[in-house]
Structures are given as C-alpha cells and as structure tokens.
Design goal:
The protein has 158 residues and is mainly α. The protein has 5 helices and no strands. The longest helix is centred in the middle third of the chain and has 26 residues. It is flat and about 50 Å long. Pfam families: COesterase.
C-alpha cells in the first residue's frame, strides 16, 4: 500500500482524475500523439477502477494505482534489468505488517503498511513510538526483533 503516500491528495485529485486521467499517468510514458495518450489513460483507468469513478468507494484502487506507478513497477523493472544483465543475486521483500492501532484507510475498515512503514520496525524513536517501546503491541515488538535480525543477517552475510 505504498500509494498511501498520496492519500493527502485524494480529496483534491479525485475529481481531476475523473475529468482527465491522462494527467496522472507516469511522466516517463511516451506517446506518438494526444489521442494515443488518452486511449492508454482510458485503458489504465478501466484496469484500476473498472466502470467506477475515482471516489470514496474506489479509494483502495486509487492507492493501488499510485503504489504501482510510483513504486511497484520501478522496483520490478529494475530487478528484471539486474537479472537481464547477469546479476542474479536480487533480494526483494514486501513489508505488509500493520499494528492494530494504525489508522484505517479513509472510507474503509482496511489498514495498510504505508511507504517507509518498515522503518518503524527497524529504528526506535520514530513518530509516536519511543525508544523504550512504550505502547507497542506484543506483535509489533516481535516484528521489530525479527526485522532487525533479518537486516543484520543480510548486511553481515549477504
């Protein structure tokens, strides 16, 4: 749910996305003309939102769209380029842990790990969490231990 990074824009962007979705396409996409750009934009909007407009009911699709266009596509493309060029030692992981006190996505009952959420698992004193871990759930304390061990092992042994 990396696209949660764009939640602060939802209220101002939803109408603009419905009016001209092509304005929200990744800037590195290239088109022969404006007609082709609009056709691609229509296809992409239908992929994420179906026949529905971008609105409160489709907010998870809004998050998916920005997750994919801002993060997922680039990570997977970069990884494939490494493999294509002979580097087969590629390691990816998906961080999806959400603690019970994390806020839900507006208009839903869904919680998601937002961009950089794993930093809360690795470092102390970020955000509302203090270095002595006051207020952390047992599950989150356990996750912090696991994440720190995984990162330490990767850094020291590859």
């Amino acid at each position: 749910m990396e696209g949660l990074i764009r939640m602060h824009n939802f209220e101002s962007w939803k109408d603009a996305m419905n009016e001209r979705f092509s304005d929200f396409l990744p800037v590195d996409l290239q088109f022969q003309n404006e007609e082709e750009k609009e056709e691609v934009a229509t296809t992409i909007k239908e992929f994420y939102f179906g026949d529905e407009p971008v609105n409160e009911k489709t907010i998870l699709s809004y998050i998916d769209f920005f997750s994919d266009t801002m993060f997922t596509h680039s990570v997977l493309w970069t990884s494939s380029m490494h493999v294509k060029n002979g580097n087969n030692n590629i390691y990816l992981y998906e961080y999806s842990f959400v603690d019970e006190d994390w806020p839900v996505v507006p208009y839903t009952d869904v919680r998601g790990a937002r961009h950089c959420a794993q930093e809360f698992s690795l470092f102390d004193g970020l955000g509302v969490y203090t270095s002595d871990e006051i207020g952390l759930s047992e599950g989150f304390r356990n996750l912090k231990e696991i994440m720190r061990e995984m990162w330490h092992n990767f850094v020291t042994t590859g």
